[in-house]
Write a structure and sequence with these properties.
alpha/beta; Rossmann fold; Hypothetical Protein Tm841, Chain: A,domain 3; six-stranded mixed β-sheet; four-stranded parallel β-sheet; 11 helices
Amino acid sequence: MKTAVVSDSTAYLPKELVEQFNIHIIPLNIIFGDESYQEEIELSAEQFYEEVKRRELPKTSMPAIGNFVELYQSLSKEYDAVISVHLSSGISGTYQGSITAGEMVDGIEVYSFDSEIACMPQGFYAIEAAKMAAQGSDPQEIMTRLAEMKKTMRAYFMVDDLSHLQRGGRLSSAQALIGGLLQVKPLLHFENKVIVPFEKIRTRKKAIKRIVELMQEDVSDGASYQAAIIHANCEEEVLAWKSELEELFPNVEFQLSYFGAVIGTHLGEGALGLGWVKK
């Protein structure tokens, strides 16, 4: 059985990894007023962070069902099945769109996977699926492995400005107001598929230190891990952080990633994140 792997643009997979592992990407959309852009195709992260400095905060939308159908139909000419890995169903309808489209397409079996997370940690699932598919694993084996990965998948992130989360409906107005008044840099994470505060921390420096402590708790077992340092247009800061982390955790393979347009809309410039999973 020949199996394709699909992910959506919010995994922010580097182009070289997409090509290396033959992962098919379906884009989400960014809408500035009457103008809609396909994330990562028509609007890069760099362009997005420039645009939001001079325009109103955009809206975001999931891929159209028709786009899913078109992609799956195209894949059906060459593949028997597809593993479709998507951002958390608690913050987007993308995963459900994949299920709906899969039921509409003949000639290929679609296995939709709810990563219950986003960004590069979501990408880790897609890469693992692609590696297994290339080795000839059947879809059920791949889905079982992805479910196993969830047990050690962790991600924490910090926002610099709570207003983006509040305006996007991901955080209550009261939480945003209180956080802003106190200069709180809340640590956030995914719980039950949605973004929730993990801890409230007063400064950026202390928030970063706390994320490192949380990683230490997990990776001190000596096993091998892979991790992604994720940033919203603050690459210089995270390059220095990466060097520190590599020295602290020799058993962890680190890579840099970023919050692109869709996730960046909700987190805002200056956000930082760290996600890891046992290899």
